[in-house]
Model the fold of this input.
Amino acid sequence: MKIETIKTLGELKISGYKSKSIKDELRDNLIQKIKNNETTFEGVHGYENTVIPELERAILSRHNINLLGLRGQAKTRLARLMLNLLDDYIPYVEGSEVNDDPLQPISRFAIEVIKEKGDNTPIAWLHRSDRFAEKLATPDVTVADIIGDVDPIKAANLKLSYADDRVIHYGMIPRANRCIFVINELPDLQARIQVALFNILQEGDIQIRGFKVRLPLDIQFLFTANPEDYTNRGSIVTPLKDRIGSQILTHYPVDIETARLITEQEARVVESQKEMINVPDLARDLLEQIVFEARESDFIDAKSGVSARLSITALENLLSTAERRALKAGDYKTMVRLSDFVGVIPSIIGKVELVYEGEQEGAAVVAYNLIGEAVKSLFTEFFPKIEKLKAQDEESPYDDVISWFFNQKEGFELLDDLREKEYKSLLDAITPLDDLLGQYQPKLAKEDSYFVKEFVLWALVEFKQLSKFRFSEGTQFKDPYGSFISGI
Done:
């Protein structure tokens, strides 16, 4: 017999069901997962040796937890994934506002029902998906919202005095009894509201409007906070911080491979885009490198962080840029071009906070320059380093490519809306690029080679070997000194 088919308190007792606090429930299920070598937080990448072990230790210690980290570091996702460590179902007294355990009732309602009906007390079952409550800390949050208050309408309808505890309307926290309760952006919660949490965290009970009501609540609290908020908008009051068992620091991905996993998992890509657009591995790496460059940029406020959402929305915009271009040109298949990265600029400028110098430069300029910096950083992983200074007679692997541009008096233009065939034909015309790729990237797939060719051109610009001019219809590449010599 499935346990959730049990409908009365008497049947529950016969079944041998034993009550368990939510913290013990999480602990026991985590222990089982660890013994079975199962993944505890599925879909979270980059935290395997840092955050997740600390989070597991906190759960084993039966602690309330504060996840402290910059925006876009999967804090809320970790909180929601804790649901997977709960039992499938738990019983509660039917009609209870606070999910009373039938074997250990805490509310007046449940105690009186059980006293009246005994083993015939009806019970219902709460699925673990319903055992998660979340509140975003905003300045308008009141004690009544999260703890409770006297309800005058209830008093009038039931014809009760305000001195009767049955007139209490329970807030979000009591209603989340036996659940996981998350308060996001805790420092934004006003200090007087944070004070209201003291008793709940330490003694596990609440007080409402002076009533001598003791509800020994059973809640797993999980808070999230951004270090930036400590100075910008508020702070966690010290006694509340002292009552939180474990504070865990989150972080951004430390390598491109992990960042790519996250981006590809989270990006909402339409199936038709997947079929139409080829995205070379180098393009995906470049997208992530832009984010890494943003986190190191002197023009971007590091204390605000650069969210992982930047690369997610940037990938969506990159694919849409390629899709739009192909649709306008009448191509059924296309591949991402480096010039398509101009389309990710709106994703960048909406996700970063600029310092004063960045504001002076302009958000779009900073974003465009990040693309160039990313190209420069990745280039030496695939091709020989370009030295800033070299002897006059010293040869370079790039001499032939540069000489080719030296002979192009009017420059070389790659328009944004070129058809696929025209785009490839133009790049194929730069024959020294084929020799360069053949020597240093001999195993490169033919389709990916066109992106890499354009990548080389952008890199030569970044290393001051070529010049690049961006205009409304596309990009022009030129030898930086040829125009002066020829008098043009």
The longest strand covers residues 220-225. Confidence is low (pLDDT under 50) at residues 483-488. Residues 437 and 443 are 9 Å apart (CA to CA). The chain is about 45% helix and 10% strand.
